[in-house]
Amino acid sequence: MHRIKLEARQAPKALFHVGDAQEVDLYAYCNLHGLWKATVKK
């Protein structure tokens, strides 16, 4: 598991190396909108 904590005025961007994975589930928590999930496929 990889985690990046963003600060208040920081751009909402992150870069992760996932090796040879063909599909990755991404989760993001927003203090206004709650938990978000996206699946990314190569």
From TrEMBL:
A Pfam match: Desulfoferrodox
Cite the Desulfoferrodoxin ferrous iron-binding domain residue spans from the record: 3-38
Q: Which residues form the signal peptide?
A: none
**InterPro entries xref list:** Desulfoferrodoxin_Fe-bd_dom, Desulfoferrodoxin_Fe-bd_dom_sf
Coiled-coil stretches? none
Q: Where on the tree of life does the source sit, at the highest rank?
A: Bacteria
Q: Name one GO molecular function term.
A: iron ion binding
Q: What is this protein called?
A: Desulfoferrodoxin ferrous iron-binding domain-containing protein
Could you read off the lineage of the organism from its UniProt record?
Bacteria, Bacillati, Bacillota, Clostridia, Eubacteriales
